[in-house]
Amino acid sequence: MIHTMISIILGTRPEIIKMSPIIRECQKRNITFNIIHSGQHYSKNMDSVFFEQLELPAPDYNIHVGSGTQAEQTGNALIGIERILLEKRPDIVLVQGDTNTVLAGAIAASKLNIKIGHVEAGLRSYFREMPEEINRVLTDHCSDYLFAPTEKSRNILLKEGISDKNIFVTGNTVVDAVYQNLELSKKKISILKDYNLKKSGYILATVHRKENVDNPVIFRNILNSFLRISNEFNIPVIYPIHPRAKKMMEMLDCNLSGIIFTEPLDYLSFLQLEQNAKIILTDSGGLQEEACIMKVPCVTLRDNTERPETVDVGANILSGTLSESIFKSVEKMMSIKAEWINPFGDGSSSKKILDILNKDQLL
Ligand code: UD1
Ligand code: UDP
Fold first, then answer.
1. CATH number of the domain at 183-334, please?
2. Which of 39, 94, 123, 249 sits 20 to 30 Å CA-CA off 100?
3. 37 Cα to the center of ligand 1, angstroms
4. Where in the numbering of this chain does the UDP-N-acetylglucosamine 2-epimerase domain appear (predicted)?
């Protein structure tokens, strides 16, 4: 066996969760790897709680980029990651998703001629105002291994001129993460009881996208819609609030006493809330996927999505951010039957990814 090394680059909550099955698979196969954390997320409940609960090894490096403008975050991560890659010279780096950390990792590696594997390649919202859309396009175009979750994402990449030989449809590692943790969540967690919620008797909401929460008019409108939905359908709404949204909410002068707010939750508690919700209202990418996997109807508080597979199978609907259309979408999704097939794979995505790298003698 050739002795090679992978650097796994991550920096935010969803990257930790979606990389966790790959990290576990590397451990199982005794593959040499290190974890480079950009430090983009750093609060305990956005970062270390996931390492602890998912029993992941602590990052070997943390660059501590923290919060800042798009350029500050990306630039500082780029400088920090390059330093580590220069010293450690891994054979391949893996990045996952569409954050500023992902772009920084991909640029740093590509300029050093280190191979790049992009996990969750080929997603497009076709909405360039979203910083993540720029990150997706640029990362895909400098990657050597594009691990596309579905045929749809493979076709997007082909249309952009990326060679078929670099694209591998592997499913999404989020399915692995859900399957690996759902049983554990059922055994260990009692969050429904803690908040006095009943199975299928509440709505789970999350909103954190810059486009939604940094605009006070849009954010206020979304929050007021939650109140209206809670009143008219006589159902509680629980909202574990992301720190970006919390910061904005504190500046809005609204009476939100009808919504149950919590701090960001650990993964096992959150999975349990997702699985037992009547419906999920969200602008999160990961939640659109997880809702679809767990057969919970989803309303996405956006005009576009880079996860159209969820809409195609009938698991998700785009409501935009206007009150009336959110209400109508909720009304529709409250009464549908969850009979779709999950389009993101069977939970063996991390195995497939490592098999592909192994076949190319990268492991
Ligand atoms: C980032 C990603 C987004 C992803 C989200 C996952 C980009 C461009 N955005 O958005 O794609 O969906 O992570 O949650 O990379 N904060 C804390 N503690 C933390 C982290 C953030 O308090 O641990 C607060 C800070 O006030 C910060 C704000 O949240 O300014 C936003 O954080 P940032 O990492 O810039 O963007 P996210 O909105 O988290
Ligand atoms: N999540 C969590 N606790 C929470 C909210 C979300 O563990 O309080 C998980 C969720 O299950 C999913 C991921 O975080 O796996 C989604 O992250 P987020 O919505 O922040 O980012 P996005 O997916 O939109 O990039």
1. 3.40.50.2000
2. 249
3. 14
4. 25-357
